[in-house]
Amino acid sequence: MQYVWDFRPVWLNFGVLLEGLVNTLKLSGFSIGLGLVIGLVLALGRLAPTRFLSLPATVIIEFYRNTPPLVHFFWYFYGLPILTGISLSPFAAAAAALSVQSGAFFAEVFRGGIISVERGQWEAGRAIGMGHAQLMRRVILPQAFRRMIPPLMERSFELVKTTSLAATLTYGELVYKAMVLATQTYRPMEIYSTVAVMFFTVLFLASLGMRAVEHRLARRTAR
Amino acid sequence: MNYSFQFGEILANGDLLLRGLKLTVLLFVLAFSGALMCSLFIGLARGSSRRLPNLIATAYIELFRNTPVLVQLIWFYYALPALSGWQPTAFTAAALGLFLNTSAYCAEIWRAGLQSLPAGQWEAGRAIGMSEWQLLRRVVVPQALARMVPAFTNRGVELAKMTSIASTITVQELMYEAKMLSTQTFLPLETFTVVAVIYFVLIYPGTLAAYALERRLNSKGA
Amino acid sequence: MANVPPANVPPANLLPADAAPVLAVGGLRKSFGTNEVLKGIDLKVGAGERIAILGSSGSGKSTFLRCINFMETPSAGRIALDGTPIGTAGRDGTLTARSGELRRLRTRVGMIFQQFNLFPHMTVLENVMEGPVTVKGLPKAEARAKAQDYLKRVGLADKADQYPQRLSGGQQQRVAIARALAMEPEILLFDEPTSSLDPELVGEVLDVILGLSKEGRTMLLVTHELGFAYHFATRVLFLHEGRIHEQGTPDEVLKNPREERTQAFLHRFSAFHF
Predict the structure, then answer these.
(1) Which ipTM score applies to this complex?
(2) Per-residue pLDDT tens digits for C135-194
């Protein structure tokens, strides 16, 4: 095993890798934001008393939760343009696929959080004459929100890792930049190891942050 | 929108997809069974009060949880050969990567499961002279297992989805065949829709099983 | 500093004059971090002695009991079973014993816990059989017969095929006693066996323990049940702040305590009667 390490190509092109990391974070941020909105809509749809809303919402949620993200990436990038005539950039297709799929997962977190609020709260609100929407807005959602934060963070964490699949659509996030550099410099070991370390650093710090948030939340709700 | 769907073309090439599906299943079985077997020991190391096993297990688990699966597979297929001189086949690299990844997550499930058992159970076993191995086998694991099955099932669902990533390192499983088919037939819409449905049909029962198991667990009162 | 009577005061009617102590503890200390819970305990227990250990919480009585079967590792001191020392002292005095030695120790010294700790995934009979089969390697048929016998002795033969969750606390604790007995130990350690029980269930467990005392078993019992201790024990130890503050016969310690602290402790249990 006489491998000679040579990190010079990595340092020389570090700017490119950083650019990739920035693009990863851009895609992540956008998809988390849009995903939360979609998730809320889907969750409320699934919780709606009428089947007209709840059935499609359930189907969408379960379908996107039980299929691989990669299929959706390709579907949105190659398939959707055929259906709608609009062609999507790699970023747009990746963002669309990620947002909808994360939305499905977020929807289940929202729904779980809402359901976990005790019956008594629902009854109290109804007893003073609140309608469904008011009840949600004024009583249930504020209480549910706190419980949802840890799983929402977990899901967002997974989303950041899933953005790496956008490389298959040639979106210039970190893995894509790494693949390009590796073919250019013939130093896959150094490049991919560096990229792994970059991901690890960002994600590990994020996971520490998440744990800190969970601790603070747990303390505040301790009885 | 004047698009006419041509699903017939896809079904005509069903055998290609079936071939891919076989590899998907094989990847899943290898990675999952390996992970279930090895993760107990890693989980024990992770929960151990001895510094060295704990450190190694923690480093391993954190490494695989804080990097994307795609990076892991690429590393085993493209980077490792440069260092070690050993070029694994794409399938081997994928199976190895998925196995290590799933083991890391399963180890955490074990750790949480074992720690959820009241300390009194460990003490009662020790008090009648059981060795640590007898204690695990006869008292601890049987009780912890029931609680952990839903979590393991969820991991299985995640792994099934992750097998599709192997397509990016040229493993000819279902996703790879889908890509091939969509370029051959010029019907990406139909192809990917069909493949999505195939995955759904494969994976959804796993999710349903996990739901059912969790409900049973909650009703029995852990 | 109280003047403690000599540690070895076995009741004359129970021991031949030249008997070796079943259990000998010398200079036992235990610290948890910087907190020293046991500050030097010396005790010799003869075969057939029944020792009740009393003391307020924090006095170290449970810790002391748990050191005997090494559920806690002594920080200093010596422990010997039937004259054979257990473990070896390290450089800092901590007693360490290899796992094989510990396992053998625990087949000879049985423990009954405050929280029973029955195995919920096994039936009552399987709980009692588990030690003999898995640890001692007895054939199942033989272990089953013995287990049924022990269950009969604690009055629960009819519950053999039930799971522990279906039994009351008192019944579970009795099963726990049968489980410990099934290992046929030389010494039985009871760590507050009735403290977790509803008051009306305490009696059935105490009756079983009293029944054991008629068999001449060596037992150490940590308890708050002073009336029971009086009838059960051949010797009473009062622990205070990690040391044996006073010891003697039940009449001496419980009816006529010499030390002030012992008197103060007993005073708080004004409701008991012998």
Answers:
(1) 0.89
(2) 888 999 999 999 999 999 999 999 999 999 999 999 999 999 999 999 999 999 999 999
One-letter amino acid at B102 equals: T
CA–CA distance, A211 with B102 (Å, rounded to integer):
22
- In single-letter form, the type of residue at position C43 comes to L
Shortest CA distance from A83: residue in chain B: B3
B123 to chain C: closest CA residue: C71
Helix (H, G, I), strand (E, B) or coil at C40: strand
* Nearest partner of C184 among C235, C233, C135, judged by Cα: C135
Q: Is the pLDDT of residue B126 over 60?
A: yes
In angstroms, the CA A159 to CA A168 distance is 16
Annotate C126-153 with b (16+ C-beta within 10 A) or e (fewer): bbbbbbbbbbeebeeeebbebbbebbeb
Q: How far is B43 from chain C (nearest CA, A)?
A: 22
Going from the C-alpha of C230 to that of each of A211, C210, C252, C259, the distances in angstroms are: 54, 11, 10, 18
Contacts of C142 (CB under 8 A, 6+ apart): C132
Interchain proximity B167–A83, CB inside 8 Å: no
What is the C-alpha to C-alpha distance for residues B59 and B47, in angstroms, rounded to an integer? 13
Question: What pLDDT, on the 0 to 100 scale, is given for residue B2?
Answer: 60
Q: What is the mean pLDDT of residues C5-29?
A: 65
The β-bridge partners of C52 are C221, C236
The two beta strands, C23-32 and C243-248, are unpaired
Query: DSSP character for C115?
Result: T
What is the pLDDT, as a whole number, of residue C11? 46
Identify all chain B residues contacting C103, using CB atoms and an 8 Å cutoff: 129-131
pLDDT band at B214 (very low <50, low <70, confident <90, very high): confident
With residue B112 as reference, give the H or E element that holds it.
helix B90-115
Strand, coil or helix: what is B222?
A: coil
Q: Measure B147 CA to nearest chain C CA, in Å.
A: 13
Question: End-to-end CA distance of chain C, in Å?
Answer: 30
Contact B65 A70 (CB under 8 A): no
Q: Indicate the residue type of A107.
A: A
pLDDT bracket for residue A6 (50, 70, 90): confident
d(CA C163, CA B125): 17
Q: Closest Cα to residue A202, out of A13, A25, A14, A11? A: A25
Task: Give the C-alpha separation, C23 to C267, whole Å.
Answer: 31
Three-class DSSP category at C204: helix
d(CA B62, CA B67): 9
C53 - beta bridge partners?
C222, C237
Residue A221 pLDDT: 56
Residue C188, SS3? Answer: strand
Taking only the tens place, the pLDDT of each residue in B138-174 is 999 888 888 898 899 999 999 999 999 999 999 999 9
**Helices vs. strands in chain C: H and E counts, helices first:** 9, 12
DSSP-derived letter for residue C207 is H
Mutation to test the C interface, candidates B128, B136, B147, most C Cβ within 10 Å: B128
Q: A5-19, A194-208, B180-194: which has the highest mean pLDDT?
A: A194-208
Nearest Cβ partner for B131 among C69, C103, C113? C103
Measured CA to CA, the distance from residue C133 to residue C138 in angstroms comes to 5
> Is residue C265 within 8 Å of residue C23, measured between CB atoms?
no
| pLDDT tens by residue, A92-140 | 999 999 999 999 999 999 998 888 887 777 777 777 777 777 777 777 7
- Torsion angle in degrees (nearest 10) through CA of C186, C191, C193, C199: 150
Query: Measured between alpha carbons, how far apart are the two ends of chain B, in Å?
Result: 55
Residue C203 has pLDDT above 50, yes or no: yes
pTM: 0.80
Cα A6–chain centre separation: 35
